[in-house]
Design brief:
mainly alpha, about 75% helix, about 350 residues, MetI-like fold
Length: about 350
Amino acid sequence: MFAYLLRKLAALVPTLAGVTLAAFALIRLVPGDPVEVMVGERRLDPAAHAALVQQLGLDQPLAVQYGRYVAQLAHGDLGRSLVTREPVAAEFAVLFPATVELAAAAFALALALGLALGVTAALRRGSWLDQLVMALATLGHSMPVFWWGLILIMAFSVGLEWTPVSGRIGIEYDIDPVTGFMLVDAALASWRGQEPGAFASALAHLVLPAVVLGTVPMAVIARMTRSSMLEVLREEYMRTARAKGLAPARVVLHHGLRNALIPVLTVLGLQVGSLLGGAVLTETIFSWPGIGKWLIDAIARRDYPVVQAGILVAALVFIGVNLGVDLLYGVVNPRVRSER
């Protein structure tokens, strides 16, 4: 297993090199002058404009700029924002917990409901319940994130007034950022008696964004779980387990679901990319202060270091999760581990 891990890590080197090159090159294909965007409505004379371009290092050849970028990464430096002139790593550290909190809530919702619906549909194959679950899964997978988010806002925030429209917590609460995760910080503040009701407010703000972001992964997990469970239910060892008189729940969960999880784990790893991509739209719709909205604003401002750092970190998270899922194969199914 250790040798397998080393081979996987070695294979990541060219992947990460390609990610850095793509992040560096693609943002520079976007039309617009970052200096003009940075100064806003002010007008600079040509000399002042050239001096600012030189100060930012944008007058150097692209190869030199890319070399400097890679050298900074080698030292753990993500650069400074062209707009705020703050270290990108510092800005990222403040915003990343918000995205993690939203993605974790969406992933937990998608995993719990997706597995439950997939197993239920497989056990009731051909019934009205099976057809209903698959119809909902198809509908959930085909709905655009931005459309689904606006529909839920109109229904539950504007119409029924059950949930807030935007943000992470009500403006009447002043929460100290102890961990950066609003649910945790609000719970701590409520527990200490400093801000009663803060946790309920943070949870209410999280519900709709998590549902919107988790809908597509939930639909994919449900469909894959059903398909995998149908194959497992036909295996000889399932009939043997039933013949031994084991409880139906033990047969389904221990013998059935565990063996059906291998293809589902692959889907789970791939859905991380869906969560990161969907977070950009979801955070923009709900004004959620995470890295998705941060990247959108940075692209509009041609803030090269911010965009490069955001893409690189998203790629690292995606690669890391998929590597972890790959290693989990051996935990779920020892036969996979022995084949390695």
